[in-house]
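[RESIDUES AND BACKBONE]
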Amino acid sequence: MLHLLFPVCLAYLALLSSTFATVVPVAPSPGDVFYAGSSCTIAWNVDTTGTWRNMSIDLMTGPNNAMVLVMNVASGLDGTSSGLTPYNWTCPDVDPYSAIYFYQFTNDGNTSDAQWTTRFTIASASGATTPPDNATQPDGDAIPWGTGGL
C-alpha cells in the first residue's frame, strides 16, 4: 500500500512547489522616491525553482482592487537569473508626481500568480510631489493610493 502512496505524494509535492514558485519583489519600498528622467531601481529575490523564465514587470497605479497599467517596464526577463536584479530603468514623466506607483511582476502573462512591490513615489525632476488622493483603499486598508498616468 505504501508503494502506491509514494507516487501520489511526489505528484502533490511537485504541484505545491510549482504553486509556490515565484520571484519575490524587495524594492522599491515604502518611502522610496525616484525622479522622473532618472534611474529607477527594481529588485527581487529570484525564483529558485526555474519556473519564472519569462517575467514581465509593469508600472502600475490605482487601488488594490482595480489596478491600472501605466506602462510595461520590461518583458522576457529570466526571473531565475540573479544577474538581472537589481534592474535599472529610466523613470517616466508621470502625472501626478506622488506615492501612488508600484510594480507588478508576472510570469508568461499569468496574473493569477502576480507579485507586487509596495507603493513608492515618482517625483518631478526637481523633486516636487503631491500627496496621494486617497488615504485608504476602497476596502478600508490604510494604504494611500491614487491613479496616475503618463
